[in-house]
Amino acid sequence: MVEGFVKYESRIKSWLQGDAYRMQALQTALDLNLSDWCIAAGFVRNLVWDKQHGYEALTPLNDLDLIYFDAFNCEEKTDKEYESKLKTMDGNPWSVKNQARMHQRNDDAPYTSTTDAMSYWVEVETAVGARLTNNSEIEILAPFSLESLFNNSITINSKRKKLSDFNERIKNKNWLVNWPNLQVII
To answer: Which domains does the chain have, with CATH numbers?
Structure first.
């Protein structure tokens, strides 16, 4: 399992390093000095699915999902301030969410970290994020590892088990149209 993770992690890091848009987004996010942060969801997931499907042109991102964990300031207005600052810096469609408060929206027990929060997301393959360290090293966060992401799967999270939410996301996001080799795993 560890060997597979390292191999897949290395590929993701290489693909990110070769993508000027994503590297700039990581640098911009790093400059905010947030605690326990990453850019997650489609940022990594779509990149891997595009590469697995052999696409030369990457699928455009609807938004950049910047998540972080700060238990001392859980006000939603803080997230909105970060979004506004980021959009002013680079004009990208940022979505910023402090995972220390997101458990309330989902009726879960309080999350303990960004990785813990991602472990409650609807799909396993969406729960992957990337961040830069202060030494410009890329770190990958993946509470479910990376194998299913590289197996062209969309897997429901056993912690969620809300089939209606899962199916709605697959349909509304056009995943099976955009990446026809994907297999749905329930």
So the answer is: 2-185 (3.30.460.10)
